[in-house]
Amino acid sequence: MLDVRRLRLLRDLARLGTIAAVAQAHTYSPSAVSQQLAALQREAGVPLLERTGRGVTLTPAGTALVRHAETVLAALEAATATLAAARSGLHGTVRIGAFPTAVRTLLPAALVALGREHPALDLMVTELDPVHMPDALRERRLDVALLHDYDLAPVTPDPTVESEPLLDETVFLALPADHPVDGDPIATVEHRAWIAGTPGTLCHTVALRTCQAAGYQPRVRHHADDFTAVLALVAAGQGVALVPQLGAVHAPPGVRLVPLPSRRRTRLAYRRGSGGHPAVSACVTAVRTATAAYLASAAGPGA
Questions:
Q1: What share of the chain is helix, strand, coil (3-state, %, to 5)?
Q2: Based on CB atoms within 10 Å of each CB, which residue in 80, 140, 240, 289 is the most buried?
Q3: Bridging pattern class, strands 92-98 and 121-127
Q4: In angstroms, rounded to a whole number, what is the distance separating the alpha carbons of residues 245 and 139?
Q5: Sign of the CA dihedral running 84, 140, 137, 107
Q6: pLDDT at site 162
Q7: Where are the domains of the chain?
Q8: What is the pLDDT of residue 85?
Q9: What is the pLDDT of residues 91-134, one digit of tens each?
Q10: What average pLDDT does the structure give for the chain?
Q11: Residues 6 or more apart whose Cβ sits within 8 Å of residue 208
């Protein structure tokens, strides 16, 4: 019988590429990971790994086993969800991950509703950039995540994660109110300074790609990840920026918001197989209800 914990290590080796990275993800030592993978290889009875220089790669049998491991792990999540549904009442810890604008606008009402309807749930929120959320779900640091991508920077679906659409937002070009816009808005700000997210974040990538699609490389003067700060910098004449609908609801005076064809798409995500877990389902329902209520009451652009 193959050990599930060892299958998870093999799956993560296929994803991360090195034993050292797997050890770091699981807070093990590299030697402990190597020992567990060697034990899995003995259980399998065929070579799963082969040495390549100072590292290891998966054999064809190892790659095939990883595909089965994904199915096994998803089935275990589904089994856990079934057992949880058989118990009366919801209790335990639910870890929710979200990007900053969702934490500020959508989650508060959802948390209030969950606390009122399921007081035995221990709700924990972590603010996280969407690029890190699939790893956090896979490593069980999160149970539910609000993640997003942009049409200019689509994210490849992760086979270990299931998701469902939540929100499709307009993206605005935020610029000083006195800046003229004639024709393509992005082309008109080619010579202005830009305010973009921290390098490595999805928002930073989208700003670069938006300008590159217009034929130029932006001159990024400031980096800021909070859209309230971004809009304050725009109002102070420090540059222009891309701001999605949730971040643009309360734009300060002196800022002009020009809608662009680009869209930001938010999804609710959870580990594959865990969607039937009552706590996950309750979180999804609460976030959906809070999102609908927020958009209905918002007075900003695109409401």
A1: 45, 25, 30
A2: 240
A3: parallel
A4: 31
A5: positive
A6: 92
A7: 4-84, 89-168+266-297, 169-263
A8: 65
A9: 888 999 999 899 999 999 999 999 999 998 899 999 988 888 99
A10: 89
A11: 196, 217, 218
Separation of alpha carbons 37 and 257, rounded Å = 54
Whole-number Å distance between alpha carbons of 56 and 52: 5
Residue in this structure with the two tokens 């609460």, named with its chain if needed? 286
pTM exceeding the 0.70 threshold for the entire prediction? yes
List beta partners, residue 146: 98, 268
Both tokens of 259, joined, read 């809608």
Q: Which residue has the higher pLDDT, 85 or 289?
A: 289
Instruction: Find, among 174, 300, 297, the residue nearest to 249 by Cα.
Output: 300
Write the pLDDT tens digit of every residue in 50-88: 888 778 888 998 889 888 888 888 888 788 777 776 676
pLDDT digit string, tens, across residues 144-189: 999 999 998 888 888 889 999 999 999 999 999 988 888 899 999 9
The span from the CA of 98 to the CA of 167, in Å, is: 13
Q: Which residues, 6+ apart, have CB-to-CB distance to 276 below 8 Å?
A: 78, 81, 82, 85
